[in-house]
Write a structure and sequence with these properties.
Blueprint: H1 3-6, H2 9-18, H3 23-29, H4 39-43, E1 52-56, H5 60-64, H6 72-89, H7 97-101, E2 105-113, E3 121-123, E4 132-134, E5 141-148, H8 151-162, E6 167-174, E7 177-184, E8 187-194, E9 198-202, H9 205-215, H10 227-232, E10 240-246, H11 249-258, H12 268-274, E11 277-287, E12 290-299, E13 325-330, H13 332-343, H14 347-361, H15 367-372, E14 378-385, E15 396-403, H16 407-422, E16 427-433, E17 436-443, E18 447-456, E19 459-464, H17 466-473, H18 484-490, E20 500-504, H19 505-516, H20 524-530, E21 533-544, E22 547-556
Antiparallel strand pairs: 1-2, 1-10, 2-5, 3-4, 5-9, 6-7, 7-8, 8-9, 10-11, 11-12, 12-22, 13-14, 13-20, 14-15, 15-19, 16-17, 17-18, 18-19, 20-21, 21-22
Helix pairs in contact: 2-8
């Protein structure tokens, strides 16, 4: 988004409120204000052509909840950021966001509209040759709707801004409504007050005119098919900070790509894939664990081919507590079958699949049966720290664990892989780790590059690096699922679910700092934010074929400032 569209917020609001001035308005402004700053009311003045909209609450209690998190360094950084924001928005003025704006601003809805239609420019050719039309790509319009929760405070602020130096205000009439043009530092912003309860503004006059048309009765975002239901749908997050509404997911992606500098057009097959998601609503809130995001997608069950499977999450217990990153799920084999089926409609992807099959056939391995076919249970991929052997230079290794009901096929596959490794001058050795028979691919003077074995009758593991194999096969610390960090980050996520994405920020940051010490260190500001984060947990659920839900928790450390 260009700078002139991203920094027009507060000056425009003030100019719009100037329209409401006069003694009569002053008396009216003293009256009580209803709940007109909600998302649904704001959506009623946004044109139905809006691609998506975001509603941001100004409830001080919800935002104050964030103050219970963060290190002292992070708290100082946030305080400085707010101070800089006030200076940037009101340079050379005595206006304060806390005193002059916060008291009257209600919820803020930001909508993205398609760009204004333009006629193609003509490129002049040689004398006598016809001119060639040039398609000029335009950026989407940004439209903001701000609820007025305290009309008297809004009027006082408008009068104060009107007296500031360097602010020029002009008015024009459209459909009986006064549009205010505010010019500050040479940049115009257009605004209007509708029904004395909302300020609508944009850096484009035509966007404000469309909002007035909507206010006068043209179709609104609130009445758009798919939009009204998702606006009314409650996303279960505490202390909601913002909600995002996408009524036509495929249409939004299609239009945004078409408006890109490359003017990308989606092939029919890709558009069909996108249409699996009909609409989406997401909410961002704050609770005792940190910042939580929940998204609900409304699916087309006729187009959606992927079959959601819940996981028992028992496989997480196969990893040691020092694991700092993990991805788990269920049924790789069925997912692969779905991808293969859908690749028939994508020549490029189908070619990649056939090439992979062909390459493995050269070494007598069937990709579908011997690689993906037996991966029919729960699985997890994890990163575990280690600075020994082949892992010394990178500081960590990886582990893959699979539950399978077809042990015979899995063993046959790894027998073939072991034989293939021998042809590459890799030493294949057997050893016992924690009572488990493990096969290692060894490199002279560096130890095991890779190891694989069985943790129980149905659970296979593959480890990158000998130390990681020892950590998994002969786990001496408590299991990851019983660790306090894992519980704090994932314990409040919805269950049952389709698996986890898990990240322990402290352990991750120690590795990042290790590499940063060898090159460019992390900036103090970035380090202050990162050290305030406990970790990240993500999971997905699907209660029925028409609904998919995603939940993410950015777990934060409590504020230690006294």
């Amino acid at each position: 988004m260009p700078e002139n569209k991203s920094k027009f917020l507060v000056p425009a609001v003030a100019a719009a409120v100037v329209v409401a001035g006069s003694v009569a308005a002053y008396m009216y402004f003293k009256g009580p204000l209803g709940d007109s700053s909600g998302a649904l009311d704001s959506a009623k003045v946004i044109p139905s052509t809006a691609l998506f909209a975001t509603y941001i609450t100004t409830d001080s209690q919800a935002w104050a909840k964030l103050q219970q998190f963060g290190t002292p360094e992070a708290q100082k950084l946030v305080a400085k950021g707010l101070e800089d924001f006030n200076k940037d928005m009101f340079p050379d003025s005595n206006i304060s966001y806390e005193k002059d704006i916060k008291p009257w601003v209600g919820g803020v809805m930001i909508a993205v509209l398609p760009p204004n239609p333009t006629k193609p420019a003509q490129q002049k050719g040689p004398s006598g040759a016809p001119n060639t039309p040039i398609n000029i790509q335009q950026e989407p319009n940004i439209l903001m709707v701000v609820g007025i929760k305290d009309k008297l405070s809004a009027l006082n602020f408008a009068n104060k801004l009107k007296s500031q130096k360097g602010v020029k205000i002009q008015e024009s009439d459209y459909q009986g409504q006064k549009i205010t043009e505010t010019i500050e530092n040479g940049k115009p912003t257009y605004s209007v007050v509708l029904n004395n309860s909302h300020v609508v503004f944009s850096p484009e006059k035509q966007a404000v005119e469309k909002a007035i048309d909507t206010f006068k009765g043209q179709p609104s975002f609130a009445s758009k098919e798919g939009a009204s239901s998702i606006i009314a749908k409650s996303v279960d997050v505490k202390n909601t900070l913002a909600q995002i509404y996408v009524p036509d997911y495929a249409g939004m992606v299609q239009q945004l790509l078409a408006q890109s500098p490359q003017g990308t057009k989606l092939p029919p097959q890709t558009l069909t894939q996108l249409k699996q998601v009909k609409s989406m609503v997401a909410g961002i809130g704050v609770d005792d664990a940190g910042v939580r995001v929940k998204a609900i997608a409304n699916l087309d069950p006729q187009l959606s081919k992927f079959q959601y499977q819940t996981t028992p999450a028992k496989i997480v217990g196969q990893f040691p507590t020092e694991t700092f990153a993990l991805v788990s799920g269920q049924g790789i084999s069925s997912g692969w079958q779905t991808l293969v089926e859908q690749s028939k409609d994508y020549p490029e992807f189908k070619q990649v699949v056939e090439q992979a099959r062909g390459q493995l056939k050269l070494v007598n391995i069937d990709l579908d049966k011997e690689v993906f076919g037996w991966m029919n249970g729960e699985f997890a991929f994890a990163a575990i720290p280690s600075d020994q052997g082949v892992l010394k230079s990178v500081g960590f290794g990886g582990a893959l664990v699979f539950d399978t009901s077809d042990r015979k096929t899995a063993e046959g596959t790894f027998t073939k892989l072991d034989t293939l490794a021998k042809t590459q001058q890799i030493n294949i050795a057997k050893r016992n780790i924690g009572g488990k028979d493990v096969t290692e691919w060894q490199i002279p003077q560096q130890g095991a590059l890779l190891a694989h074995g069985w943790l129980d009758q149905d659970t296979l593991f593959v480890a990158i690096g000998g130390p990681v194999a020892e950590a998994v096969a002969d786990r001496k610390s408590q299991s990851l699922d019983n660790s306090d960090t894992f519980k704090n980050i994932t314990g409040s996520l919805q269950k049952p679910n389709g698996g986890y994405f898990y990240l322990d920020m402290d352990k991750t940051l120690s590795l990042v700092n290790r590499f940063a010490a060898q090159g460019q260190p992390i900036a103090p500001e970035a380090n202050a934010i990162l050290t305030s984060i406990r970790g990240l947990g993500v999971t997905a659920t699907s209660p029925d074929k028409s609904t998919s839900e995603l939940e993410m928790l950015l777990a934060l450390k409590p504020n230690t400032t006294k």
